[in-house]
Design brief:
Elements (H helix, E strand, L loop, with lengths): L11 E5 L2 H21 L39 E6 L4 H16 L3 E5 L7 H15 L2 E4 L5 H7 L6 E5 L4 H11 L15 H16 L7 E6 L11 E4 L3 H6 L5 E8 L11 H15 L1 E5 L6 H11 L2 E3 L5 H7 L2 E7 L4 H8 L6 E5 L14 H10 L5 E3 L6
Parallel strand pairs: 1-2, 1-4, 2-3, 4-5, 5-6, 6-7, 8-9, 8-11, 9-10, 11-12, 12-13
Amino acid sequence: MNPRAGTAGHTTLAFVESPVQLLNVLEWAHAHAHALRTKGDGAPGHAVAIPAQGGRRSGAGRTTADGAGATGLPEGEGLTLVVLSPTDPMTRGQLRRMAQLARDEGHEVRWEEARGGATAPLKTVRGLAPLLRGAYRVVMGDPFSRYVQLLLTITRARELVVVDDGTATMEFVAQLARGERLVRWHRKGGRPAARDLLFTPVSASARRRLRPGPRRTVNVFSSMPIEETPPGVTVTANDFAWTRSRFGPPLLTKGADLVGTSLVETGVVDGRHYLEAVRALAEAHGARRYFAHRRESPEKLHALAVETGLEVVRPELPLELIARRGPTGRTILSFPSTVVHTLPLALAGTEVRVAVCDIDPAWLTENASPRAQGFLSGVTGTARDVDRLSPVAPR
């Protein structure tokens, strides 16, 4: 029996809560279609797929000559992107623009106001339950998300795919390999909170479902360095082929661009130390623009602009797309973050230099997780094709 029977139109469901997750789902769809084209599998549901290139689309709902749909996926293997919308206005704006890019690729997008009131989660889960039960494959961007973990308890999907949600993917795979409770790296150690204990059965069920078995495969699609791989889990490299095929190469400008981080907002790095480090780094390398992280507070960004003289830019899309479209500085400076792994891939073939500045342990707050320094050092130390800078000394 064809395992995809009865699932046409919703073969693959993808759940995203951030612009980066949505970008990486598009990268996964592009890579998946390319793999099918290369493999040339003639089995039902596996028609050879040729993704559109150079911005030329076939048009949603139409079929190319080889049997592939407009998305580049085989006919009958549609991708429905479900946006579990957050409340943060900056994130929502980026998600709406990314959702339009997904529609331009021919994918269906379903926008859920998943946090729009006390009854929204229940309504969202009820509305998605039929799709979850019928999906052959579920793609998720954040396995730490309680929303996603709850949805995993409903699905009967034969394939689970985890795409990058930044550096958290490294910690997720390591925790899964060690059989540990799924906890974000920046969460302070100690006893779980009361609501964490209440959610423990759901989290444990999700963790079990994220382990491969006789009736389920698990794949991690990542640009991060994965050192510990759980038995049976397949890791596929994300090289940002979709981004490079659709955008750029960028026009390069003089000077440097500096990439912001939300380490202050997550309570890892002290705000005053961070501001002084940004100022010293900008002066040392001639940075002119500061690309803000979507979670950075307006108050912090205002103080940063006043005290450093940098032009603060609020990107409308993930930085990988902004940098690829340009104009872009010849040097991009960053503290330990996802972009030190993704930008070298997205900017491959250009002359842009990516440099990462280590976090001085003195910058950490007293509330930072005991794992914070080791994790951040690992993010920097495992980055490829970047220049590594020592922590900058304030004036």
